[in-house]
Write a structure and sequence with these properties.
The structure is a homodimer. With about 475 residues, the first copy, chain A, is α/β, with parallel strands linked by helices. Chain A is about 40% helix and about 20% strand. The first copy, chain A, has 15 helices and 20 strands. In chain A, the strands form six sheets. In chain A, strands 3-2-1-4 form a four-stranded mixed β-sheet. In chain A, helix 3 runs parallel beside helix 4, helix 6 (about 230-245) crosses helix 8 and helix 12 (about 350-365) crosses helix 14 (about 380-395). The relative contact order of chain A is 0.15. At the A-B interface, helix 3, helix 12 and helix 15 of A face helix 3, helix 12 and helix 15 of B. Chains A, B: Belongs to the metallo-dependent hydrolases superfamily. ATZ/TRZ family.
C-alpha cells in the first residue's frame, strides 16, 4: 500500500475498554501515520486544539502535512464494525435477496432462494452489480471488516476480492466449497473434493497477486457446511490451512433438521462439531457461524480448540433456527463476534445485528427461571457493541489491528452523528431534513444514553465517514 | 374541515385484502373527493392514463380541478399505518427516551426513566418540543393514525391534541389517569379518583372545541394501568365511556411482577383482565396494550367483550416482558393491532413494529414442539402488514374509514419508493446518494418480494408522501 497523508482526528472517541465497559475519550486527539496506524493518542486535554497541539509536538509532525477531521459537538468516533463473520458471514452473493425468506427454514431456503441466485452469479456482470452494491452498503453501515462467503465460481470470487480492494473494505473472501453429489444440485457444485481444494487455491493465488501481504484482502477457506462437503474435501481444506495458516469459516448447528442430517451423513461422528474436529477444521483461526444448538460437549470442544463463533441473531430468528446463547459461550471462554448472515438475516448492518443480539438475549432470558441467571443472560448495550468491534476482531485474528483505539492499531473507524432537536421540536441540517437519521437528542442525555440511542435507532445515516487503514472509504454529505 | 382540492392517485396500490393476502392493484387510479374520501377506484386499465381518463369520465370531474400524483415505476401506494395503540401506544411523552431502557424491567423502568420525564412535560415549552418531534417522526414513518398516552397534565395533553390537529395526524389523545397514592410518586399523580375523571373531562372539552366532530383528533379515556389506579377512578372512567361512547386504552398483563402486584392490589378479582371487567372497562371500544401473559380465561373474556389488543413486540422484548401470541389471540377471535410503546420499545416506526411482530412470532414458534402448530405460529409478511393497517383500524373503531383502499374510506396513505440498482451496483437519485434508504431492487423481484424487502429493510426514507384524510401531511424530497 502506498503511503497516504497523515491524519489527525479530534473530538470524542468511544470504544470498548472491556467486554462490559465503554471508554469515552473527550477533548481527545488521535494521530494516524502514513501507513494507517495509530501513532499516538491524547486524552483529557483542556480542549481539542490543545490535544492537537500536544500531539503534533510529541510526534514532531508539521500540521500542513496532516489532514485534520474534527468531530463536532455531540459527534463521536467509533471503531469500524467487524462482522466476524464481521460480516464474516454476509454471503455477498445473497445480498440481492435481503428480506426475502418467506416462512422457510434453512434447508428449504437453500434450495428455493440461495442456490439459484448463487449459481447465477457466474455471470460476472451480474456478480459485479450485486457485489459492488453489497460492499457499498456494508461500508455505508460502518462495516470496515467483512468476511464473505462468495460462490463456487472462481472468477466471480476473484472479482469480489478485486472490488473489496479497490473500494477499500478490509475483507476475508471465501470461495465456497461444496462437493457432495447427493446434497448439492447438479447445476451448482464442485466436481470433486480435489476440485474444491484446487479452485480454492486459484482464489488464494489471485489474492496473493493483488494484495501480496493480505494487508486488506485475505483469502479464507470456506467449506459451505458439513452437509454440502465430503470428509475428503474438508480434510483437504484443513491441510491447506496447515500449509498456509489461512483462516477458515463455515457453519455449525444452525437448526435441528440440519443437525439430524449431519448425524445421518456422518454416522461415525459424535456431533456436528465433531465432524469438523475429525476433519481438522477446528483451529484458533476458524469461525463457526450460528452455533445455535451446540451441546455442552460441543461448546467445550470449540473452547478447547480456540475456535471462534459468529453469532447471527437476525438470521437465526428470521429462519426460526433458534436462540444462540452468547453469555453461555462467553462463560465457556469462547470468542464471539457478530454476523449478518444476509440473506438468512435481512439486514446488511452490524449495528442492526448488535441490536438483534440484545433482543435475542432477552428471548434467551425469558426461558430461564432462575432470577440471577435470567438477568445475566441479557446482553447490555456495551456488550453488544463489544461483539460488533473487538469481539469480531478477535474472531478473525485482527485483535491487535482493529476493533479499538490504541497506539499501534490501524485506523478502521467511523464518525457518528446524531440529531440535535431545537425548541420547536425541529432538527436542522444544511442539506435535507432527515440527513442524519432519526436518533433525536434533546440535550439532556448522558454519553451513555447517546450511545444507547444510536444502537437502538441508528442507521447508515448516522455514519458520516468511514476509514479503513487510514483511508477514507465512505463519506456521507 | 374545509374542503380541499380533489386528488387523483395513479399507479400501483398495495393493501390487505384479508388477514392472509395482499391485494395488488396495477395500472390503477384512485379518486379522492374534497372531504378526503375515496370516491372511486379503477384497476387493471391498459395504463394509468387510461385509468385516469375512465375515472374522470365516471365522476364527471374536470382534470384542472384535481391534483394528480402518479407513482413512478416500482413505487406503490400503501395504507398509512394505524398503530393501535397505532401508535395507540406511543407514549408521546416518552419519545425523548427512545432507546434508553438499560436492562430494566417494567416496574423499575417506570420509576427510573418514565415518571421523571413525564412529570417534566408540564413545562409546556418542553412538551411542545418533544410532542412536535414525536408527531413529525411518526408521520415521517407513515403512521397516519396514532393513539397517544400523554401525561397527567391537562395543558400539556391539550397541547398534544392541538399539535396533532395542526400537523394533520389522526390521533386519539389520552390524558393519563393515575390516582393511587401508594403506587405513584407524590410528585406525579392525580389527587383523587374524582380528579382523574374531572381532568379527563377537561381534555375532552378542549378537543371538542378544536375538532367538534372528532374527525381528526379524538379524546381517549386512559387509565394508565390497574396498579396506578383506584377501582373508583377506573369505574369513573367506565361511566364516562358509557355517557360519551369514547374509546378507552390501557395496559394489561405485561410482565409477571406486574401481574403479581395486581393480584395483591385487587385481591377480590380473579385475574388482571378481571380487574378491568369488574370496573366496566372491557368494551368493544377498549384497547389493551401488551396482553403478554393472559390466560385462556382472560383471552376468552377479552374476546367475548370484543375488547381489542395492541401487540407491542419491540417493547415486550426490550423490557424482557415476554412473547405475546398473536396467532393464538386471532384464533380466539380477538382483534389485534400494533403499538410501538416508545420508550419501552425503541422505535417510533410501525414498520419496525411489524418487522418485530414477525420476529417475535418466530420466537413463539421456537418454543412449540408440534410441527404444524410451530409453523402456524409464524406470522407472514402479509399478516404483519395487516396488523399494521386494517388490524389497527379495527382496534380503534376506524375499520370503515382507514386501513385499506375502498370506496367510501378516507385517503390515509403513504407513497413508498425503493431503490433501483444499476449495472454497476450503484443507485442514482437526483438529490443525494441514499435518499431512498437501503432497500435495493435488482429488477428480478416479484411484487411480493418488493413488499417483503420493504418490510424488512425499509425505513422512513422509503416513505415519500403521507396523506391523512386527503391532506398531504408529510413530504420527503
Amino acid at each position: 500500500m502506498s503511503p497516504q497523508r497523515k491524519l489527525l482526528l479530534l473530538g470524542t472517541f468511544v470504544h470498548s475498554k472491556t467486554q462490559q465497559d465503554l471508554d469515552f475519550l473527550h477533548k481527545a486527539a488521535i494521530a494516524v501515520d502514513a501507513h494507517g496506524k495509530i501513532a499516538a493518542i491524547e486524552r483529557d486535554a483542556h480542549d481539542s486544539s490543545e490535544a492537537k497541539a500536544r500531539l503534533l509536538a510529541k510526534l514532531g509532525w508539521d500540521e500542513a502535512a496532516v489532514d485534520v477531521t474534527e468531530a463536532a459537538e455531540g459527534q463521536f468516533f467509533f471503531p469500524g464494525f467487524v462482522g466476524i463473520t464481521t460480516d464474516t458471514h454476509i454471503h455477498a452473493s445473497q445480498y440481492a435477496n435481503a428480506g426475502v425468506f418467506g416462512k422457510s427454514s434453512l434447508l428449504e431456503w437453500l434450495e428455493t432462494y440461495t442456490f439459484p441466485l448463487e449459481a447465477s452469479l457466474k455471470d460476472l456482470a451480474k456478480a459485479r452489480r450485486v457485489y459492488a452494491r453489497c460492499i457499498r452498503r456494508t461500508l455505508s453501515h460502518g462495516t470496515t471488516t467483512a468476511a464473505y462467503f462468495a460462490t463456487i465460481d472462481v472468477a466471480a470470487t476473484n472479482l469480489l476480492a478485486d472490488l473489496c480492494l479497490s473500494m477499500g473494505q478490509r475483507a476475508f473472501v471465501g470461495r465456497v466449497c461444496m462437493d457432495s453429489p447427493d446434497m448439492n444440485p447438479a447445476y451448482y457444485r464442485d466436481a470433486s473434493a480435489g476440485d474444491s481444494v484446487e479452485k480454492t487455491q486459484q482464489v488464494i493465488d489471485h489474492i496473493r497477486r493483488i494484495d501480496p501481504g493480505f494487508h486488506v484482502v485475505s483469502p479464507i477457506l470456506t467449506p459451505r457446511f458439513a452437509p454440502s462437503c465430503s470428509a475428503e474435501a474438508m480434510s483437504g481444506l484443513a491441510e491447506l490451512h496447515r500449509q498456509t495458516g489461512l483462516p477458515i469459516q463455515t457453519h455449525v448447528s444452525e437448526n435441528p433438521g440440519e443437525i439430524q442430517l449431519v448425524a445421518q451423513l456422518f454416522p461415525e461422528t459424535t456431533s456436528y462439531t465433531d465432524v469438523y474436529d475429525k476433519c481438522g477444521l477446528l483451529t484458533p483461526r476458524t469461525v463457526l457461524a450460528h452455533a445455535v444448538h451446540i451441546s455442552e460437549e460441543e461448546a467445550d470442544l470449540i473452547a478447547h480448540s480456540k475456535t471462534k463463533v459468529s453469532h447471527c441473531p437476525c438470521s437465526n430468528t428470521c429462519l426460526t433456527s433458534g436462540q444462540a446463547r452468547v453469555r453461555w459461550m462467553w462463560d465457556k471462554g469462547i470468542d464471539v463476534g457478530l454476523g449478518t448472515d444476509v440473506s438468512g438475516g435481512y439486514s446488511p448492518s452490524i449495528l442492526e445485528a448488535a441490536r438483534q443480539a440484545a433482543m435475542v438475549s432477552r428471548h434467551v432470558a425469558m426461558a430461564i427461571e432462575e432470577e440471577k441467571e435470567k438477568e445475566r443472560a441479557k446482553l447490555t448495550v456495551e456488550e453488544v457493541l463489544y461483539l460488533a468491534t473487538r469481539g469480531g476482531a478477535r474472531c478473525v485474528g485482527l485483535q491487535d489491528k482493529v476493533g479499538g483505539f490504541e497506539v499501534g492499531m490501524e485506523w478502521d473507524a467511523q464518525l457518528v452523528t446524531l440529531n440535535e432537536v431545537d425548541d420547536d421540536g425541529e432538527v436542522h441540517h444544511e442539506d435535507e431534513d432527515d440527513g442524519h437519521g432519526f436518533v433525536d437528542m434533546f440535550g439532556w442525555e448522558t454519553w451513555g444514553d447517546r450511545v444507547a440511542k444510536w444502537l437502538y435507532n441508528g442507521d447508515d445515516r448516522n455514519t458520516k465517514r468511514v476509514w479503513v487503514k487510514g483511508r477514507l472509504v465512505h463519506r456521507r454529505t
